[in-house]
Amino acid sequence: MKTVLRIMMMGLFALGAGWAQANQTGDANAWKQFVGKTGPSGWRANVIQPDPHDDGPDGVNFHDWDADGDLDVFVNFEEGGYSRLYFNPGPDEIRGLWTDYIELEKHGKCEDSGIGDLDHDGDIDYIANGGHVFFNPGQGDLRDPTKWVRMTLFEQEARNPIVSDVDGDGLNDLIVGAEAWYKQPAENKHEATQWKRYELGVADWPMSTIVNDIDGDGDQDIIVQERKKQGTFYYENLGAEYVTQPWPVRVIDTEIEGLFMILGDANADGRPDLVKASKKGEVFLYLRTNDTGPPKYHRVEVPIPVQPDGLTAKGDNARSKGVAFIEMNGDPTTPEIVLIPEFEAQLWYLTMTGDGMSSENWANNLMDLPGPESRKKMDNAFLADLDGDGDMDIATTEENGGWGVVWFENPTTK
Known about the structure:
By secondary structure, the protein is mainly beta. Helices cover 6% and strands 34% of the residues. It has one helix spanning 2-25, and strands at 44-49, 57-63, 72-77, 82-86, 101-103, 113-116, 125-128, 132-135, 149-152, 162-164, 173-176, 180-183, 196-199, 206-212, 221-226, 232-235, 249-253, 261-264, 273-277, 283-288, 297-302, 320-326, 336-341, 348-352, 362-366, 382-384, 393-398, 404-409. The radius of gyration is 22 Å and the shape is globular. The termini are far apart.
């Protein structure tokens, strides 16, 4: 009897696991019902490239790599372990699939990527998940992936590769994993042994890394939104004399399980604020209250909106993940805050009334984009004017529903 029960339990467990997997991945072709269609608000969902095999695109970078006047898109694929540069087909064909692309040498599992000039030649290079740098060969060889010179600094994942001149010597350095930085050498820039590593501190699972002079003392600090242990904090830059030593940690909020975060003036008072997608779906606004010195914040918690009927993600399960400032209502004096939910929920944005210092001053507005239930796992909100019409569109990656690399077309024009 015990053996029979054990077999029955194993069967039920397998059935449940199979249902969970099917529920997560869903129909990889469901996006085809909704692509190119607009919702009541006028926003349209477009697909750059679908993801029929769950290769898991997980981050985008914008730049006009081929210098034709249109923004191209570099995408890293987490489970697929590769990266592709998709060339913008131009305004006449941009709403269709982008079929012109190159794929770089496979680099392994990759949950994030970045761009910047890391060999001081004027061309923008590509960094896959911190450890793998691909140097741009220049316009003449741009479309030949074998000409992109690969330099591997390390093999393991390190989120949020950020290109910035950390030591102020005029050369861009590379910040990796929100815990270390690599100094760009004066010579032999494509040789990994020439890039010296310096430790910043500890960051277990950084979601956002932002370089900014947050304390106003004239040098660049590093703001980190960390998901699992440290919460929200910044590394204080003590100046060039100490830049190669571990940086002091200044805590902003110890709340963990937060997702992406942005820096900007949320309430139009002239001070730089922080906005974070929090663990239960609500949005945390850290509104700065002082003008000089170490920042002081007033935290406002804006609850998650009620999702439309028929969606499987409800309540906390419809939590926000991606976040960005965007202009939505024609009043540029106060930005709106767009939120991308992680699972099967409608996008929404926040508008402010009054001074923004309480949750009652912020209203949730659903965006009515078609097919929210078909998007199983979305990522951060990346803003760019992809169609060149003068307003900011919203791009993201969708990992498990087949949408792949998707952009939401802004219906307004300037």
